[in-house]
What we know:
The chain is α/β, with parallel strands linked by helices. The protein has a domain of 199 residues: 3-Layer(aba) Sandwich (Rossmann fold). The protein contains 13 helices and five strands. It has a five-stranded parallel sheet with strand order 3-2-1-4-5, sandwiched between helices.
Amino acid sequence: MEWNNILQESREKNPFDAQAWIHAKCVRFNDYLRDNGLSGAVLSVSGGIDSAVTLALLKYTVDLPDSSLQKIVALSQPIHSSPWALERARELCETIGIPLTVIDQSENHRRISQAFEVATGNGGNAFSKGQLRSYLRTPVNYFAAQLLREEGFPAIVIGTGNKDEDGYLAYFCKYGDGAVDLQLIADLHKSQVFLVGKELNVPESILKAAPSADLWDGQTDEDEMGFSYDFIEFFIGHYLKMTAEEQCEFLESLSPESREEFIRSRELCTGIHNRNAHKLKGVINL
């Protein structure tokens, strides 16, 4: 049996209840805010599905009876970004009913990369400059949180990492989009993030778009990783839970072509995990 068939059968056998998950998660989040004297939240809105769902969860929390969350700052920080990123962020905020604050950092990015090129002769390749985009957004997020505190709304920065990318692959910038105080969707596979988005009426323009961090022109997450989100869901949700004997039996059950493709994707997946695993350990004290 092909791995994608196993994944589909598992989804059908154990259907994900998006509505129940949403309510339970937001009640738990509200309890956390109340217990810690917090009333504000800051979120970077990229125009992608993860930040869209997270913002919708914040709005759901605000609307709970006796909600502790009183103020949300949704930030868009274009940095030589594709036009669709800001367009979708605006559409999302208009749909949900939360104001969007736009802080364009393109000039800051240009100045820093040029300064390094002048000082060292190396201004960075497309990947490095893409990482710089993510790093630059962190201080603005926390400055916004500080401003909320000044206004009387003690605030935290909310993350947008899911189970597949952040939980296993550590597919994030450690002190870029990984620099947050709390994650809301870290227990969701990417497919479940989309289901939650649909339940929360996230705009179709976001639900139908190929996931992309927009760190350079034409970048998509699946192209960069080299395998699909469905594969990583199967890999960490099923394959890694098999015994060594069961894994061998599974591989033998695949057609030669599928086996070769699976092994290729497995090597890419474990390679990313091993390369990034240090990020999951936090700060190391030697």
